[in-house]
């Protein structure tokens, strides 16, 4: 789909999408995944395509469990209603210095503040599949440019199954990916995959770093 169609779809169906996320227990799934990560003190996090904030909420839950306060958690999304919902949650949790802005993932270089950088973790869940497939590698490359030298990008993305093709591709106009496609895209984006494995029944989770960085 072209950009105006995507904007219209996720503006008019914002509440339906948010309800779907709640019904499938997406936030709880993400929380369980992030509980395996030992976040550093004063962690810097970017939630790319944050929506109403399910991923950020799960990160905050884990940070609270680990008794860690974030230096900042930033989120961006192109949907104005989603950004408004995210901002409401952010205002309720000042301890993690949460901020949000409206931005299209394809124009991160010009759309995000130059101060939004040096992130320990750039996270994205259920967003990148809504880009045209040709836009995925350039978008990942733009995201990776905002990482700290030792930073990591973690992406949750829909995989190519008959159910996803029927539900996500037809109803939500999303792309689905095979493992081979994702490995090629991440390589093109200059990212070194550390882990790629299935996530629940619907997706893959990929952890990657910039390929030219050496991680201690």
Low-confidence stretches: none
Question: How many domains, in number, for the residues?
Answer: 1
Count of separate DSSP helical elements: 9
Q: How does the helix and strand content classify structurally?
A: alpha/beta
Quote the distance from N terminus to C terminus: 41 Å
The number of E-state strands comes to 7
Please provide a written account of the structure.
- The protein has 216 residues and is an alpha/beta fold.
- The chain has one domain (3-210): Vaccinia Virus protein VP39 (Rossmann fold, 3-Layer(aba) Sandwich).
- The chain contains 9 helices and 7 strands, in the order αααβαβαβαβαβααββ.
- It has a 7-stranded mixed sheet with strand order 3-2-1-4-5-7-6, sandwiched between helices.
- α3 packs across α4 (54-65) and α7 crosses α9 (179-188).
- The protein is globular, with a radius of gyration of 16 Å.
Write the layout of secondary structure elements.
Layout: H1 3-12, H2 14-23, H3 26-34, E1 44-48, H4 54-65, E2 72-77, H5 80-91, E3 98-102, H6 108-111, E4 119-125, H7 133-144, E5 147-158, H8 162-171, H9 179-188, E6 191-199, E7 203-210
Parallel strand pairs: 1-2, 1-4, 2-3, 4-5
Antiparallel strand pairs: 5-7, 6-7
Helix pairs in contact: 3-4, 7-9
